[in-house]
Amino acid sequence: MITRLTFASRLGLIVVLSLIVGWIASTAIFYMATAREDGESRPLPLPQQIAAIVQLLEQASGSTERSLIIRAVGSAKFSVQLVSALPLLQTPQTRPFELRAQLVEKALDEIGGRPFSLTFDAAAGHNKRPPQFSYMKPTDLELRVRLQTGETLVIRGYHRPTTNVYGMPIGFIAGLVGTLTGLMALIVMHRQTRPLARLAATVDQFDFSGQPTMLAETRSAAPEIRALIAAFNRLQARLAQLLRARMAMLGGISHDVRTFATRLRLRVDHIPDKMDRERAVADIDDMIRLLDDALLASRAGAGELVEELVEFRQVVRDEVDDRSAERAPIHLQSVTSEEDAIVLGDRVALRRVVANLIDNALQYGRAAHVRVDASDRSVRLTIDDEGPGIPAEQREALLEPFVRLETSRNRRTGGAGLGLAVVRSLVEAHGGAINIGDAPTGGARFTVSLPLFHA
């Protein structure tokens, strides 16, 4: 799941997780700082303070002195009251109450013990439906202690949220500030990563046949991103210049070599021995074919192929008929009509694809079984041979330039290793794909898929 997130999404997730961890840590530190060492929060006085209050009230000589003691020990978190003839209540049998009651009982035992009860504060409305009290959800408490004088000491503790000067809880203010900070960070981060998205889109739309599209420099972006955009623009300019120079060089070489090959062909005709003359002519034809393949592959890589509507089935049939006229062991099976296999592409390049694959099957596989079928979106050419097949670990490498299964560079045992590389280059230039598999006849199967043209 994390691998599908964009760079901006990952940074945003880091910011959000950091804020969450910060909130949790700050909340934990706050409650740890305001809690007692024994872990008990303080809506009520400490057990030792309760025992001291009991002793002071029991030892007071009059009502005036008792009133002074009650006023002295009271606070905003708890109130102290002395009531006559007030019965004790039943302490709830829950762990938070039991732990608090044990601490109070231990403190009162040190002064001789006193009956007491620890309950919810009935005045807070908990007498009918008590809340689910726990240490994580504290509520108002009421402690009643029966004095030796017969009176009942009532101490009510109140859990009030800690607030700031504006009357809002500190946790709410911290969360609001953290959220606003996180949103601002996300907005700034999105603005900083936007040039990277434009850079990726420009790379995908890079057109070798046209002028390079320069990215506009963003002054508000980080220095690293500005440097990356500038480097990419320089790279585009260099690639365009290099490509133009390469195409010009190949064009010049092709023209000059063809001129020399024509002169050489005329001289070859004067070779008296027929066998030597035929071998020389074949070598010249192979040289011109190799040059044409290299030039065609370069044009495909540069995006300079011609685009026209091509009846792919007819292209395949023409190539098959040429080999059949030479009595080559080739068979064509077509399961689609010509109207179902219209491809937008270069006719010469598509013929070279079909010719290279068929010649490869005839030369190395002893026979070629050709099949053409089409679906709603693509047309597929399948060529099976009857050779020994191609090992799975060598199939991908075989599509690279100048790679042959037969490693000796003898032209009598194979070509230059450029035919399949040219096929892949031309097929990919048309938006298609080529795969190598196993044929039912035991040989190799070459499958080419090309997108159909839809008006």
TrEMBL record:
Database matches in Pfam families: HATPase_c
EC class = transferase
Major location, coarse class?
Answer: membrane
Q: What is this protein called?
A: histidine kinase
The record places domain Histidine kinase at: 252-454
Q: Which UniProt keywords apply?
A: ATP-binding, Cell membrane, Kinase, Membrane, Nucleotide-binding, Phosphoprotein, Transferase, Transmembrane, Transmembrane helix
Which species expresses this protein natively? Steroidobacter agaridevorans
Question: Which CDD domains does this entry report, sorted A to Z?
Answer: HisKA
Q: Is Kinase included in the keywords of this UniProt record? A: yes
